[in-house]
C-alpha cells in the first residue's frame, strides 16, 4: 500500500455508483463494501497508523486501523455482511451473539432468565443453549460444545461453528480476506445450485461479455501500445479464469480481478485487495456490471 492522502473528488467518482439502494424503507442486501483511508481521522503529518473507513452496501460503516491487523473477525451470513458483529475469539473459537445470527437467518430465540437458557427455533430444529454449559440440547439429543456459551453485556455468545454446523449450516473461515488481512467467517444455509465447474463457465462467459463492452470504449482502447498491451493482459486473465478458493457461500476464482460467484444464485462480484487511483487508495468487494464500459478501468488504466 502506498500511503497517500485521499482526494474527495476521486473517491466520490469511484463510488458514486455504489450508494445503497433503499426500497420500501428497507436497505437492499448487504453484499459488498468499499474501503478508503479516512482522511479526517488519519493524521498523515504525524505518520500515525492508517484508519480505513469501510462503507457497506446498506450504508453501515466500520472503522479499522493497521493496528487491528489480524485481530478483527468479520461475519457474513448467506453472503450478506453483518457489520460490527462483535465476533469474539476465545481459545481459537469464534463466538457470536446467537440472537444476531438467528435474526439474520429467520430463526427465533427465546430467553429463559430463570434457567439462563436460550431456546433456538430454526426451521425444524429446536436447540437449547445454557449459559456456562459445554453441551446443548438439539431436538432432544445432547451435543457437545468446544467451549461454554457465555453471557456478555446481556447477550448470549455461543461457539459459532459448533452451533451452526449442528443446525445444518455451512461454515468457513477465510484468513486475510478482509482489509488489513483480517479474517472473514461465513455462514450459509442456502441450497448450493452452482458447481465449481459451472461457476468457472459463468465467470468466463460474463467476463468475455464485459471485455467486448470495455474494448469499445476508446478512452482506454485507443490503439496505443500501452492500451493494446493492457487489453491483452486483461484478455489473458479472462482466458485463464480458474478456481482459487471458496467460502461457505462463494466460489472464489482468479481473473482480471478476483471473482466471487455465489454458490446459490450464480451472481458475481469483484474483490480487489487494494489499488491506488489518481493518488487515492480504495479496496473492497464490488458489484459486477458487464455492461459497464468502465468495468476494467480500475487498477489497469486508472492508477
- Oligomeric state, counting identical vs distinct chains: single chain
User: Count of helices?
Assistant: 5
What fold name goes in the CATH topology slot of the domain at 86-171?
A: Copper Amine Oxidase, Chain A, domain 1
- Give unreliable regions as ranges: 1-27
| Average pLDDT score | 88
Question: Which value, in Å, is the CA radius of gyration?
Answer: 22 Å
Can you list the strand order of the major beta sheet?
5-4-3-23-22-21-20-19
Q: What is the CATH architecture annotation of the domain at 86-171?
A: 2-Layer Sandwich
Order of helices and strands: HEEEEEEEEEHEEEEEEEHEEHHEEEEE
Q: How many beta-strand runs?
A: 23
Distance between the termini: 13 Å
Shape: globular
Helical content band: 10-25%
- What kind of sheet is the major sheet? 8 strands, antiparallel
CATH classification, class level of the domain at 86-171? Alpha Beta
What amount of the residues lies in strands?
35-45%
Going by helix content, strand content and strand pairing, the class is alpha+beta
CATH superfamily of the domain at 86-171: Copper amine oxidase-like, N-terminal domain
Q: What layout of secondary structure does this protein have?
A:
Layout: H1 8-15, E1 22-23, E2 26-27, E3 33-37, E4 51-56, E5 61-65, E6 74-77, E7 80-81, E8 88-90, E9 93-97, H2 98-105, E10 108-112, E11 117-122, E12 125-130, E13 135-138, E14 141-144, E15 150-152, E16 155-159, H3 160-166, E17 170-178, E18 182-188, H4 196-214, H5 225-239, E19 243-246, E20 250-253, E21 258-262, E22 268-277, E23 280-287
Parallel strand pairs: 6-18
Antiparallel strand pairs: 1-2, 3-4, 3-23, 4-5, 6-7, 8-9, 9-16, 10-11, 11-12, 12-13, 13-14, 15-16, 17-18, 19-20, 20-21, 21-22, 22-23
Amino acid at each position: 500500500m502506498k500511503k497517500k492522502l485521499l482526494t474527495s473528488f476521486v473517491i466520490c467518482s469511484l463510488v458514486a455508483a455504489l450508494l445503497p439502494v433503499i426500497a420500501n424503507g428497507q436497505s437492499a442486501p448487504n453484499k459488498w463494501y468499499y474501503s478508503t483511508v479516512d482522511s479526517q481521522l488519519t493524521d498523515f503529518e504525524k505518520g500515525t497508523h492508517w484508519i480505513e473507513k469501510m462503507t457497506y452496501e446498506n450504508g453501515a460503516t466500520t472503522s479499522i486501523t493497521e493496528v487491528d491487523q489480524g485481530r478483527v473477525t468479520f461475519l457474513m451470513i448467506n453472503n450478506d455482511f453483518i457489520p460490527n458483529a462483535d465476533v469474539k475469539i476465545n481459545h481459537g473459537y469464534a463466538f457470536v451473539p446467537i440472537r444476531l445470527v438467528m435474526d439474520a437467518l429467520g430463526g427465533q430465540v427465546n430467553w429463559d432468565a430463570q434457567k439462563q437458557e436460550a431456546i433456538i427455533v430454526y426451521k425444524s430444529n429446536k436447540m437449547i443453549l445454557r449459559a456456562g454449559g459445554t453441551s446443548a440440547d438439539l431436538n432432544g439429543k445432547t451435543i457437545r460444545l468446544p467451549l461454554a456459551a457465555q453471557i456478555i453485556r446481556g447477550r448470549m455468545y455461543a461457539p459459532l461453528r459448533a452451533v451452526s454446523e449442528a443446525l445444518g449450516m455451512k461454515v468457513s473461515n477465510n484468513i486475510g480476506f478482509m482489509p488489513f488481512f483480517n479474517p472473514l467467517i461465513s455462514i450459509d444455509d442456502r441450497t448450493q445450485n452452482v458447481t465449481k465447474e459451472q461457476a468457472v463457465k459463468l465467470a468466463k462467459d460474463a467476463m468475455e461479455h464485459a471485455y467486448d463492452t470495455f474494448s469499445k470504449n476508446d478512452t482506454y482502447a485507443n490503439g496505443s501500445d500501452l492500451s493494446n498491451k493492457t487489453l491483452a493482459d486483461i484478455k489473458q486473465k479472462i482466458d485463464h479464469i480458474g478456481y482459487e478458493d471458496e467460502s461457505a457461500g462463494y466460489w472464489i476464482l482468479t481473473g482480471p480481478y478476483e471473482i466471487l460467484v455465489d454458490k446459490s444464485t450464480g451472481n458475481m462480484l469483484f474483490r480487489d485487495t487494494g489499488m491506488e487511483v489518481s493518488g487515492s487508495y480504495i479496496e473492497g468487494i464490488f458489484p459486477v456490471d458487464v455492461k459497464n464500459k468502465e468495468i476494467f478501468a480500475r487498477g489497469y488504466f486508472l492508477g
